[in-house]
Design a protein that fits this description.
Elements lengths: L1 E7 L5 H12 L2 E4 H11 L2 H10 L7 H14 L5 E5 L5 H12 L7 E6 L2 H15 L6 H15 L2 H8 L2 E5 L4 H16 L1
Length: 191
């Protein structure tokens, strides 16, 4: 199974590149937000537990999210692999993901980190806000989201680098050029 974690700051192109990776390699996309909504809609035990937190405006605890991810991994052991988009976001989540995958003799094969300068990220997100009308894509909120990324998620680079599976991908080229760089990395893993 091929397991890819894709991460980068908000506006780095994770969603766009995830779609291309899914299409080319036949991976199952795992977005924790989608997974939470699906479990809640199915009214599963974990979905009810997640809803009890979300309905109060609280974050769903890591162990609940990992439980949902594990359920999906169990169901999809025949899948070619997974692309984890938006998870993990903290070192504790990275450790929990590794421990859960290890139960199934799986691991994170590669972490693709999209590297984009802050000013470019801000410009992209402001432009997205103009086009989509997203009210959270304003300069003040963007700067705040970037700070959260640097405080909580960026330390995962060191965590995965120590495991030898972090690959930094320059994210300021064209979409196709970025994807070409990712293909080279992934193709080396699956050969």
């Amino acid at each position: 199974m091929l397991n890819i974690v894709i991460f980068g700051a908000p506006g780095s192109g994770k969603g766009t590149q995830s779609e291309k990776l899914i299409e080319k390699y036949g991976l199952k996309h795992i977005s924790t937000g989608d997974l939470l909504r699906s479990e809640i809609k199915e009214n599963s035990e974990l979905g009810q537990l997640a809803d009890s937190y979300m309905s109060k405006g609280q974050l769903v605890p890591d162990e609940v999210v990992i439980g949902m991810l594990e359920g999906l991994v169990k169901k999809c052991q025949h899948c070619k692999g997974f692309i984890f988009d938006g998870f993990p976001r903290t070192i504790a989540q990275g450790e929990a993901l590794d421990a859960m995958l290890k139960k199934y003799d799986e691991k994170v094969n590669v972490v693709l980190s999209l590297e984009v300068a802050d000013e470019e990220l801000i410009m992209r997100l402001l432009k997205r806000g103009e086009i989509s009308g997203r009210t959270d894509d304003n300069r003040e909120t963007i700067v705040s989201r970037l700070q959260v990324y640097y405080d909580q998620t960026a330390p995962l680079k060191d965590y995965y680098s120590a495991q030898g599976n972090l690959v930094r991908i320059p994210g300021q080229c064209s979409i196709d050029d970025i994807f070409s760089q990712m293909e080279v990395v992934v193709d080396r893993i699956i050969v």
